[in-house]
Design goal:
The complex is a heterodimer of chains A (689) and B (193).
Chain A: E1 2-6, E2 9-13, H1 19-25, E3 49-52, E4 60-61, E5 80-82, H2 86-101, H3 117-125, E6 148-150, H4 160-168, E7 175-177, E8 184-186, H5 200-204, E9 210-212, E10 225-230, E11 239-245, E12 248-254, H6 267-271, E13 285-288, E14 291-294, H7 297-308, E15 316-320, H8 326-338, E16 343-345, E17 376-380, H9 384-387, H10 389-400, E18 405-409, E19 420-423, H11 426-430, E20 443-448, H12 449-452, H13 457-471, E21 474-475, E22 478-479, E23 481-484, H14 490-495, H15 507-510, E24 518-522, E25 534-539, H16 544-548, E26 551-554, E27 563-566, E28 572-575, H17 588-598, H18 608-618, H19 636-640, H20 663-666, H21 669-680
Parallel strand pairs in A: 1-5, 15-16, 15-24, 17-18, 17-20, 18-19, 20-23, 24-25, 25-26
Antiparallel strand pairs in A: 1-2, 3-4, 3-5, 6-9, 7-8, 10-11, 11-12, 13-14, 13-26, 21-22, 27-28
Chain B: H1 21-32, H2 43-54, H3 59-68, H4 73-82, E1 94-99, H5 102-106, H6 109-119, E2 125-130, E3 142-144, E4 147-150, H7 154-165, E5 173-174
Parallel strand pairs in B: 1-2, 4-5
Antiparallel strand pairs in B: 1-3, 3-4
The chains are: A alpha/beta (689), B alpha/beta (193).
Chain lengths: 689, 193
């Protein structure tokens, strides 16, 4: 720690900090445009100027100088800095005047208005007149894709977007061409950006040069009600903020959560918003003469009760889909248990994941932040760039720090970092089963659903567990055996035991034709239900599941209900209600509670609080919000006992189209446009940078 | 305002670009100047080589440089558009770079500029205004391709340009009777022992 004196206050700071960070620790506010904690330092906006005593008599860009580079005073006194001196104020006013020379005064028609760094800082350092008599520069707007709208006259060349795309997203597509007054930010050939994280440049842009295209001119920040929540588009559980105006969700922004998403979210998380408005199920439907017709809740429930009466419990089944909250699944499980139904599942056919092996057997044990400790990563049957772009950015961040080797078994795709390709099929994994321990300190396996959701999933998982044991993936203080889930609900489902009871059928068994007479789908749209069973669909969108349904009970989408989700690490997080379900739709747990009464097995709670009490009694770890109850590394030994022979076929990621993985995304016009763009741009295999 | 772009709309389309075998050897030499993995550091040298081979830098040449050096194409375009020495449009055989900064201007660069503009036909000569070339002692200066022609006036410039037109290469340096920037007409001091 080094002693420094900032604004006459002596404090101790770490020597590797920049002066800007040191000043912030001392409580001073330093304006900045180009500096960003998670990006490399550019030092080109000059807004963060401060005065350093003893050096050359000029202000210093505090973002680009380290505390350790400061010289002590003549008698060994600590270095002295001023952040509020007249010299600093004058210097910053000068910088601001230069920035405003070419910045248009179009705040009233700018989408950034009200949340603009330049606007805010101009209040502190701007002057109300201009001394600039010459022509202003004008810059053509660029096309950089379906999600980011550009207004390049407003650009102040902070280069944050360039650094983000090159460093974090790993797709070096943005750049600054020309020099001096002619400098422009562009994708060069007016190509759309291809990163799944591209919308984050909108948050990074300190002015209104890059704004959100789907949200253009939709609302002003001060009209919005902000609700903190978590994302369910993938199993990462990114922290989000849902902004609503009235009943409508207007936009989704990231929140900072260092353990999960840092401060990035994927494009799907952010721009799925319009999918919440279209294709919604807003009233119950029943199928009559092969056609669905609107019905009342009473009719729908009566029909279900009729169908259930003659059926034995062995011919009833329940499946939970990827967006179901833990509470919803717990309520469904309670109803099914009360009816003595053992056929329930939330997994894909073939998936060997099961709570009986212990919690460590299906979690991302090292945690997402733990990726930064790994020194070797093997990706097995996963394409993290498509399945969890934010997690992939974490792997890339680790790779940029150096000394990381990555191996891939499965698809050979552009992951934004280089890797050794080991092969496509399980046989490439087999060679590691009897491998001598790796020479790496902290090796890590990331096993995707592409390796598990198949008939030989158990054999592959067993093989991976054996390989992990021989390579030393699990050792004292380090558990690098990670399952990467793609669906927000699955870990929660496994945690509460939403799996077949003794003698019950699993997903594959239930979906065999003739297996069931009545099937309850809790937002299940990704599997094909055969003809035969009477299907009750509880869900939000008129998607695949609803098309097959005989009764549709309209539920609430994730921003419309308070629900617990457990992410791939096993982190229990609460999504909060930001809006209300449309029309007659209700929260899923309430639907199940009402249904239970009709079916004659009334659930013992009337409120969400009551439900949670029951849930917490049965599964106490669900109470520990934002925490992980770690699994026991020894459990992975149980997996090694899984037998069977693996086939030769290649491991394929379940996410073939990143933009279409769930019913909300499929209903979104923005996602459809992104998907079309992604398919028209052939991905070439190039290492970034 | 003209947009500086690596892909101007008003330039002839070049279908493909490949380094000649000799130049490819040179590229390897440039890359070898840097530690392994730092091959991108050679980008300016390689771009210059491409420009010497092609006469200017079409987009395909920049793409080829990006491919050879394993860089993202945008990183190459950034550099090519930053430096005014990289020509993004076709130029005449001889590029007249007229210095118009103060010393040259005081010594009559306006007339030189006018004469050069008059001579520029786009095929033999192209003209470009540049900032200080660093030859102030010999102002006014025109850089023609790689060589400086110094101490010019309209007559001597005409002589130089005529020689180029005939296919000759006139002697670079001062076009008056002096050695580099020594006094005109020979040494004035230190003549004795």
């Amino acid at each position: 720690m080094t002693k420094v004196i900032i604004d006459n206050v002596e404090i101790e700071v770490a020597p590797e900090l920049t002066l800007l960070q040191a000043c912030e620790q001392a409580g001073a506010e330093i304006p900045r445009f180009c500096f960003h904690e998670r990006l490399s330092i550019a030092g080109n906006c000059r807004m963060c100027l401060i005065e350093v005593k003893g050096g050359p008599p000029k202000p210093v860009a505090s973002c680009a100088m380290n505390v350790r580079d400061l010289r002590p005073g003549p008698n060994g006194e600590p270095p002295v800095m001023f952040t509020k001196s007249p010299m600093v104020k004058k210097a910053r006013e000068g910088v601001m005047e230069f920035l405003l020379i070419n910045h248009p005064l179009d705040c009233p028609i700018c989408d950034q208005g009200g949340e603009c760094d330049l606007q805010d800082q101009a209040m502190a350092y701007g002057v109300d007149h201009t001394r600039f008599q010459e022509n202003k520069r004008a810059v053509e707007d660029k096309y950089i894709g379906a999600l980011v709208k550009t207004s390049m006259n407003r650009c102040i060349q902070c280069t944050r977007c360039i650094r983000f795309s090159a460093e974090v997203a790993g797709v070096a597509e943005l750049g600054a061409t020309g020099r001096g007054e002619d400098m422009e930010i562009t994708t060069y050939l007016e190509k759309a950006m291809t990163s799944e994280l591209q919308s984050n440049v909108v948050d990074l842009c300190p002015v209104g040069a890059l704004t959100s295209k789907p949200y253009a001119f939709a609302a002003r920040p001060w009209e919005l009600i902000k609700t903190q929540s978590v994302d369910v588009m993938d199993a990462v559980g990114s922290a989000i903020r849902i902004d609503t105006r009235g009943r409508e969700v207007m936009r989704i922004l990231p929140r900072t959560n260092e353990d999960v998403n840092e401060e990035w979210i994927s494009d799907k998380t952010r721009h799925v918003v319009d999918g919440l408005r279209t294709q919604r199920l807003d009233q119950p439907y029943v199928r009559e003469n092969g056609r669905l017709r609107p019905a009342t809740w009473k009719e729908a429930f009566a029909l279900i009760a009729d169908k259930m009466r003659p059926v034995t419990s062995g011919k009833v089944g329940a499946l939970a889909g990827q967006l179901a909250a833990v509470e919803d699944m717990f309520a469904l499980k309670s109803v099914m248990s009360a009816l003595d139904v053992k056929n329930m599942d939330a997994r894909y056919p073939g998936s060997p994941l099961h709570p009986k092996f212990g919690r460590a057997s299906y979690l991302f044990n090292s945690t997402i932040a733990g990726i930064e400790q790994a020194d070797a990563i093997m990706l097995i049957g996963t394409n993290p760039r498509r399945e969890a772009p934010v997690l992939n950015a974490r792997i890339r961040k680790r790779w940029r720090q150096g000394n990381l080797v990555v191996g891939v078994v499965g698809e050979q795709a552009d992951l934004t970092y280089p890797y050794t390709y080991l092969g496509a099929g399980p046989d490439s994994l087999a060679q590691f089963v009897t491998h001598p321990p790796a020479k790496k300190e902290r090796p890590m396996f990331i096993i995707g659903q592409g390796a598990l959701n198949r008939a030989d999933g158990g054999a592959i998982l067993g093989m991976a567990a054996k390989a992990a044991a021989s390579l030393g993936v699990i050792k004292d203080g380090w558990n690098g055996f990670n399952i990467l889930h793609t669906e927000a609900s699955l870990v929660g489902a496994l945690d509460i035991g939403f799996v077949p009871g003794e003698g019950g059928l699993d997903t594959g068994g239930m979906l065999k034709s003739g297996a069931l007479d009545v099937l309850f789908l809790l937002g299940v749209d990704e599997v094909d239900v055969p003809a035969g069973p009477f299907v009750v669909y509880i869900g939000t969108h008129g998607d695949r599941g609803a098309h097959r349904a005989d009764v549709i009970l309209p539920g609430a989408a994730y921003p419309e209900k308070s629900g617990t989700y457990v992410n791939t690490e096993g982190r229990v997080q609460m999504a909060n209600r930001a809006a209300f379900p449309p029309g007659d739709a209700r929260e899923d747990w309430a639907i199940l509670r009402a249904l239970s009464e009709v079916l004659g097995c009334k659930l013992p709670y009337d409120t969400l609080g009551g439900l949670r009490q029951a849930l917490y009694t049965a599964h106490p770890h669900m109470m520990k919000l934002d925490q992980i109850v770690p699994g026991n590394g020894a459990d992975i030994g149980n997996l090694a006992k899984l037998g069977g022979t693996a086939e030769k076929s290649a491991l394929v990621s379940p996410v073939t189209n990143f933009y279409f993985t769930n019913p909300i995304a499929r209903a979104s016009a923005v996602m459809a446009e992104c998907s079309a763009l992604a398919q028209s741009t052939p991905r070439t295999l190039t290492a970034a940078e | 305002m003209a947009m500086i772009t690596a892909d101007p709309k008003d330039v002839p389309q070049v279908a493909s670009f490949a380094f000649t075998p000799e130049n490819l050897e040179k590229v390897k030499g440039f890359v070898a100047n840097y530690p392994p993995g730092r091959q991108a550091s050679a980008v300016i040298s390689v771009l210059d080589l491409a420009q010497r081979q092609q006469g200017w830098l079409p987009r395909v040449a920049m793409n080829e440089v990006a491919r050879i050096l394993d860089m993202a194409p945008i990183r190459v375009y950034e550099i090519a558009t930053f430096y005014t020495m990289f020509q993004l449009k076709p130029k005449g055989k001889y590029l007249l770079q007229v210095c118009t900064t103060t010393p040259c201007w005081l010594r009559g660069s306006d007339a030189i500029m006018k004469a050069c503009q008059h001579a520029a036909d786009g095929e033999t000569f192209s003209v470009q205004e540049v900032e200080c070339l660093g030859g102030c002692v010999n102002a006014p200066v025109v850089q023609i391709n790689d060589d400086f022609y110094e101490d010019l006036d309209e007559a001597s410039l005409k002589k130089v340009l005529d020689a180029f037109k005939r296919g000759e290469t006139p002697k670079p340096g001062p076009q008056v009777d002096r050695q580099t920037s020594a006094p005109e007409g020979g040494a004035l001091t230190l003549k004795g022992e």
